[in-house]
């Protein structure tokens, strides 16, 4: 039986039965960038018993302003391997399934066949993100999807809502249009910011891995997105949402 003595403060807040629900749950995190890496940390520290972490990327120097695995000493190393080691150091008894590969629309079905109890979509490229949302929705999988975190500086503007109720988020707007073509109008839970992104911070990339552009980022905004997404999962799994 798992030693949960280190979760005594969590047990005081949630109670033994709700804590057991977390210990018996499997949470999948897709993407370990600024949002996903912090979400994974908070999920692990909540006592979730099984985690699947997915990302094929390595640490780049530009990641250091916002991503948990990114340090001066980890440049060029696998994000999933760094996070797996860190999560195991937090809870040696957590079961961690590591998928060290890029998330593509062709791989989504195989990934979802792992049947998590809940998933956090922290994918930052539109094509695989759309594929995940569509397939997770069709499977009736419980999930929360992170919308655009870039170009913003005010963490108090974050909200949890159905995607149909989002505003001031270009990513959410684009996804809504795409989802409507597949008769999906609502029923997608998201974390989004009502703060308009700064258009002057938009930069263009080389287009690799379905990503053609990105906004500048502030250290604490993606982390806050990750914290809110993790809270949605924890509250939902324990019946506190």
């Amino acid at each position: 039986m798992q030693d949960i003595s280190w979760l005594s403060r969590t047990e005081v807040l949630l109670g033994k039965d709700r804590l057991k629900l977390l210990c018996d749950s499997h949470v999948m995190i897709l993407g370990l960038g600024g949002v996903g890496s912090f979400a994974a940390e908070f999920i692990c520290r909540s006592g979730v018993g099984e985690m699947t972490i997915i990302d094929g990327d390595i640490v780049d120097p530009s990641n250091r302003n916002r991503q948990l695995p990114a340090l001066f000493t980890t440049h060029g190393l696998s994000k999933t391997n760094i996070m797996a080691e860190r999560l195991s150091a937090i809870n040696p008894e957590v079961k961690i399934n590591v998928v060290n590969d890029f998330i593509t629309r062709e791989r989504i079905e195989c990934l979802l066949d792992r049947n998590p109890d809940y998933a956090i979509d922290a994918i930052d490229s539109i094509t695989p993100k759309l594929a995940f949302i569509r397939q997770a929705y069709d499977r009736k999988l419980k999930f929360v999807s992170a919308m655009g975190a870039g170009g913003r500086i005010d963490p108090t503007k974050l909200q949890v809502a159905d995607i149909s109720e989002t505003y001031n988020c270009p990513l959410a707007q684009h996804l809504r249009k795409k989802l409507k073509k597949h008769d999906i109008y609502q029923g997608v839970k998201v974390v989004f910011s009502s703060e308009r992104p700064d258009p002057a911070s938009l930069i263009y990339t080389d287009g690799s891995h379905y990503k053609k552009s990105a906004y500048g980022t502030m250290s604490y905004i993606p982390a806050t997105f990750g914290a809110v997404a993790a809270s949605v999962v924890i509250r939902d799994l324990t019946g506190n949402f």
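The chain has eight helices and nine strands. The two ends are 28 Å apart (CA to CA).
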